[in-house]
Amino acid sequence: MTSLATGFARTQRWLRAHPLALDGALAAAVLICMVVGSFADPNGRHGPEFGSRTPQLRSVVLMVPAAGALVFRRRNPLAVLVLTGAVSVVELVTGDPPAPVAMSAVIALYTVASRTDRPTTWRVGLLTMAVLTGAAMFFGSPPWYSQENLGIFAWTGMAAAAGDAVRSRRDFVGAIRERAERAERTREEEARRRVAEERLRIARDLHDVVAHHIALVNVQAGVAAHVMDKRPDQAKEALAHVREASRSALNELRATVGLLRQSGDPEAPTEPAPGLEVLDELVITFRQAGLPVEVARADDGIRLPAAVDLAAYRIIQEALTNAQKHAGRDAKAEVSVIRVGPTLEVTVLDNGAEPQGQTVGGGHGLLGMRERVTALGGTLTTGPRYGGGFRVQAILPLKTRTGEDR
After folding, report:
1. Per-residue pLDDT tens digits for 74-91
2. Residue 238 contacts by C-beta under 8 Å, 6 or more apart in sequence?
3. Cα(first)–Cα(last) distance of the chain, in Å?
4. Where are the alpha helices (DSSP H) in 18-75?
5. What's phi and psi for 34, nearest 5 deg?
6. What digits encode the pLDDT tens for the residues 108-158?
7. Separation CA 322–CA 125 (nearest Å)
8. Which residue, of 136, 263, 383, 397, is most buried by count of CB atoms within 10 Å of its CB?
9. Model's pTM, two decimal places?
C-alpha cells in the first residue's frame, strides 16, 4: 500500500507539472467515451440498446475536433467552449439519433466555471445550457421532454456547478495560504524590529556607561599627571578615583552585556538598573572629578516607573558628562528634578565657561537621550543658553506607554 500511494503521489506531481499531457489524456478519454457512446441506441425496440447501431461518418468527424479542442482548454477556455458548443449543436441538429458529442461541451463548460469568476460562470453556463438543451428539444428525437434531452440540461448544469465549487475551494485554499504567508512575514518583521530595538537600547546603555566613566578616568588621569611631581598625595587621590571609576565602568558594562546572555548562562546580572535613588552617588563622582554640581529636587519622593527612572538617570549622567567634557575648567552644572502634574521634568544646566563643542543635533549622547525620551512618549529640549552655557531639559510622563504608572 505504501508503494502504491508513493507511485500515485509521484504521478500526481508529474501531471501537475505537465498540464498539457493531462489535457491530452483527457481529450483522448473523452473521444473514446463519445465513440463508445455512439454505439448505444436510446430508442431501441425494447428500450436503450448497445451495439444495435454504428456511428455515422459525419458524427465521427465532429467528435475528433470536439475532443481535440479540449487539449487547449486551460489556455483559452471560452474559445474551446464556443468550438465544442458549436460542434455539439451541429450534431444535435443533424444526428438521428445524435452522438454524444455534447460531452466535450460539458467538459469545456466545467473548465470555464473553474477558471473564471462566478458572474461569468452564471452567464456562460445559462447560455450554454439554453442553447444545447434547446437544440436537443427542437431538433432531437421526440418527444421534446425525453430523457436524453433533459439529460443535456442536467449535465450542463452539473458541470457549471462543479466548476464553480472547485474554483471556490481553490480560492479559499489560496486565501488561507496567503494569510499564513502574510502572518509569517509579519512575525519575521516584528522579530527583526524587536531585535533592532533591543540592539539600539543596549548600544545606548553601553554608550552611556562607557562615555561617563571614561570621561571621569580621562579627567582624573590628567589631574594625576599634572600634580604628580609637586603634590603626590593629590595625584594618589586622583589615581584612586581613576581606579574607582574604572571598576564602576566594568561593573556596569558587565551588567549591560549580561543582558545578552541566555537564561541558562552563568553570571547573569543580579543588580538592579541605576535610577534617581543613586543620583547623589553620581553627582559625587563628578564633584570629585572637578565639576561642581548643584542638585535641586522636588519630585515628592514618588516611586517612578522603572523605565522613567532609568531614563532620568541616564539623561542626567550624559548631560553632566558632556558638561565636563565641553564646558571648560571653571564650568558649573545645575541639576533639577521636579514633578509637574503627571510628568517629571529633568533639567541640566551649565554655565559654559569656555566655548562648547556640543551642538543641538550632533553626537551620539544627545541622540541617545532623544531616543530614550521619545520611547517613553516624552519631549527633550537641548540647546545653548542665553548668555552662554548649555541646557538639557527632558519632560517624562509618569505613566509610560506600556501602561506602567507610578
Report:
1. 888 899 999 998 888 888
2. 220, 221, 223, 224, 227
3. 68
4. 19-37, 57-68
5. -65, -40
6. 999 999 888 888 888 988 998 888 888 888 876 677 777 777 888 888 889
7. 80
8. 136
9. 0.47
